[in-house]
Amino acid sequence: MKLFLPRLLLIFLIPLACELQAQTQSPEQTLAAMDKSREQVISQLSFSDKMKMRSAMGAIQSNPQFITANNAVTNAPTPEAQIQARRAFAKLKLDLIVKQDPILKGVVEKIRTAQAAVLK
Fold first, then answer.
1. In the chain, N or C: fewer CB atoms in 10 Å?
2. How many CA atoms lie less than 13 Å away from 31 in the CB half-sphere?
3. Which of 1-4's residues contact partners 24+ apart within 8 Å by CB, and which partners?
4. Which band of pLDDT confidence, cut at 50, 70 and 90, is reported for residue 24?
5. Cβ(98)–Cβ(105) below 8 Å
6. DSSP state string for 40-61
7. pLDDT tens for residues 55-89?
8. Sign of CA dihedral 22, 25, 27, 33
9. Residue 98: how many CA atoms within 13 Å on its side-chain side?
10. Which long-range contacts (CB under 8 A, 24 or more apart) does 69-75 make?
11. What are the residue ranges spanned by the domains of the chain?
12. Radius of gyration of the chain (CA)
């Protein structure tokens, strides 16, 4: 019983520590983690899928919604507002990629899952 209690405490304390660490990340760390998670997914794609993503990104960059959301990130008055704007921008960007090339829906879902894990 003596060994069981410390192990049980660890089971509850480790997730709590991870949650506290995530809550204490600076806005810059959160943004970097979002970028890193996206890049990790993209780095695992086939060459063909990477080229499709690159092509779709090039095509959506002239979209007025894309430009407006990008400007919102750039002009955010506080770091917290910048995170909110980046979240909205990331969502919009992925939505536009799928709209541009529906074949990339699976890739986009992997990116969304990876970024959601970072933002919890």
1. N
2. 14
3. none
4. low
5. yes
6. HHHHTS-HHHHHHHHHHHHHHT
7. 999 999 999 999 999 999 999 999 889 888 988 99
8. negative
9. 13
10. 69/93
11. 26-119
12. 18
